[in-house]
Design the sequence.
């Protein structure tokens, strides 16, 4: 992950004399007269990040999504988090040019509404209009994975490529595409649900959809299930010591530690899943011809060399020979910041597009 610069106004202390001191304080408040806010709304954690025009980080605030004393998630918790990030950046709310929010759940992008987010206790929440009214600025919502891929296009592994495909394996398998500077999506809904590509006509099923989907075969949850079986059978002693058979304890970092310690069966499980991801990527390359394919998520971050090698092997099985040398697979660079950067960059892009069409 590259260094992400955090820029703050210089404060040389109060000047002698009330007039000079007042001028200095005013200068500090106006140090960032234009800022953009990116918000990453997750089921357990949320983060607001304040950026300047070049997407340098000026300030941020990360906190738990839920208030332990309240049922569900209140919209006011989001706006409070944004204000905390503005305070960290020494920026006034009037400086906000736009707020972009990467959101979970099915969205109505045309109306700016989160249709349903069970982890938040939300249904038909008009988040775009709420943020726009609360801060008197333009606001946009987008799918969280779309925002992450757009972040990598803006400032990460897919920087300025004509077409960027992103695949982010985690609890599920998310996907996104940026084509000629714009998020590839429908009129009302996000798309690129690569986790529901059917890879086999038989096999396990994910929470919804048919059997044999990419998510059912290759998500971290699917890997954890197979790894727990290996522990139960006595074939993964190092993982047994680290996590036992509890799926909630079998995280990406834990799997990486078990492999490093010598659990070859766990390495085989991870590699098979990564090859499935690669096979799906190969098929998508045949359709989209991307310049860059970005692999994100905890598995890729925890074991980048092993995971990338297996994904590449799987992709080579399915991609057309004529396209084999036309793209590059890279590990995501922005980590936890990708969604916030992408959401802020997207609202800025949309704001410019809307202004130019008037």
Sequence:
């Amino acid at each position: 992950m590259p260094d992400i610069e955090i820029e703050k106004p210089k404060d040389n202390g109060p000047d002698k004399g009330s007039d000079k001191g007042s001028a200095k304080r005013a200068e500090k408040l106006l140090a960032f007269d234009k800022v953009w806010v990116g918000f990453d709304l997750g089921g357990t954690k949320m983060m607001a990040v304040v950026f300047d025009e070049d997407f340098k980080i000026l300030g941020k605030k990360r906190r738990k999504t839920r208030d332990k004393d309240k049922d569900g998630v209140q919209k006011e918790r989001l706006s409070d988090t944004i204000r905390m990030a503005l305070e960290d950046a020494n920026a006034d709310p009037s400086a906000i040019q736009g707020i972009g929010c990467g959101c979970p759940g099915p969205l109505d992008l045309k109306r700016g509404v989160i249709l349903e987010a069970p982890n938040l206790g939300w249904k038909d929440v008009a988040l775009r209009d709420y943020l726009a009214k609360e801060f008197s600025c333009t606001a946009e919502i987008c799918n969280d994975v779309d925002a992450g891929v757009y972040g990598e296009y803006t400032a990460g592994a897919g920087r300025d490529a004509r077409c960027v495909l992103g695949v982010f394996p985690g609890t599920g398998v998310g996907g996104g595409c940026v084509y000629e500077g714009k998020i590839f999506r429908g009129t009302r809904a996000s798309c690129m649900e690569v986790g529901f590509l059917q890879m086999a006509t038989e096999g396990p099923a994910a929470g919804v959809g048919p059997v044999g989907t990419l998510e059912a075969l290759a998500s971290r949850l699917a890997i954890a299930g197979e790894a727990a079986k290996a522990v139960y059978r006595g074939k993964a002693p190092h993982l047994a010591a680290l996590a036992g058979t509890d799926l909630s304890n079998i995280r990406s970092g834990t799997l990486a530690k078990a492999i490093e310690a010598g659990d070859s069966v766990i390495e085989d499980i991870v590699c098979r899943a990564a090859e499935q991801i690669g096979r799906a990527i190969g098929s998508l390359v045949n359709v989209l011809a991307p310049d860059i394919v970005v692999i994100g998520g905890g598995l890729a971050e925890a074991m980048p060399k092993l995971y990338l090698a297996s994904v590449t092997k799987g992709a080579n099985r399915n991609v057309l020979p004529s396209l084999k040398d036309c793209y590059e697979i890279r590990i995501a660079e922005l980590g936890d910041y990708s969604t916030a950067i992408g959401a802020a960059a997207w609202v800025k892009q949309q704001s410019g597009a809307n202004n130019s069409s008037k």
Summary: Confidence is low (pLDDT under 50) at residues 6-18, 21-30. The domain at 18-150+337-356 is CATH 3.30.420.40 (Nucleotidyltransferase; domain 5).
